[in-house]
Fold this protein.
Amino acid sequence: TITTAGNATVTVTANGLTGSPVAVTVALALADSAAVVAQKIREALALNAAVTALFTVNGAGVAVAVTAKTPSANDATFNVAIALGTAVGLTAAPTSANTTIGQVPS
């Protein structure tokens, strides 16, 4: 739960992503729950043209999922990092978990 309103920064890094790494600022309000924070992150990423050119952004609850629109080989540089900014109550997540291995199109 956010105990002091402020901003967090979500940084997306990937091969082929224009401007990579792309930093997106997310405004967080006092008392935002983890699920609300995740929703705000999903919404902010979905509004970024560079991110949505290559990825779909989805998820539910506390999950944020960023999925390549086009199947491709695994990208070792791909990462979605959440950094603390001026908001208090958020845990930094410098590395993201890969949930699906890249696949070379046949």
Summary: The radius of gyration is 14 Å. The CA atoms of residues 31 and 54 lie 33 Å apart.
